[in-house]
Amino acid sequence: MAEELKEYTLEEISGHTTEADCWLIIGNATNGGPKVYNVSKYLDDHPGGAEVLLDVAGKDADEFFEDIGHSKEAREELSKYLVGKVKLDAAAIAKMKADAEARAQQGGSSMTVVILVVLIAIVAAYMKFK
Asked: 13 or 70, which is more confident?
């Protein structure tokens, strides 16, 4: 039987933003929902450099991860750092939506934001009726 993943709030995740303690949220409704990864030990090995990961540390990095088009091997490597999943309550969904909208205003694609909001809503509905 698979071990149940620990749930972390966005507030808990947001405190992990240093080289010694770097967590990311990656995942969406199309790939199992948002999950939490502790990539601290991977920073030096990341092909794009540690700074890329530290820029999104403690935040939802799914859009950035997917936009790069990571390989199957990169996704397998990421799975080694899985520590839990995001606890999705109404506040978390609202924060993720607000963060997505803020990124869009900083020059992100508006279509990506729409898709992200729809995916968050789908995950929320799934979690509510689960």
From this structure: 13
Q: How far apart are alpha carbons 118 and 83 in whole angstroms?
A: 25
Nearest CA to 28 out of 67, 77, 72 is that of 67
Nearest alpha carbon to residue 35 among 69, 75, 86 = 86
Place of tokens 């790069």: 68
Cα distance between residue 35 and residue 80, in whole Å: 12
CA distance 2 to 10: 24
% of the chain exceeding 70 in pLDDT: 89
Give dist(CA 13, CA 63) in Å, integer: 17
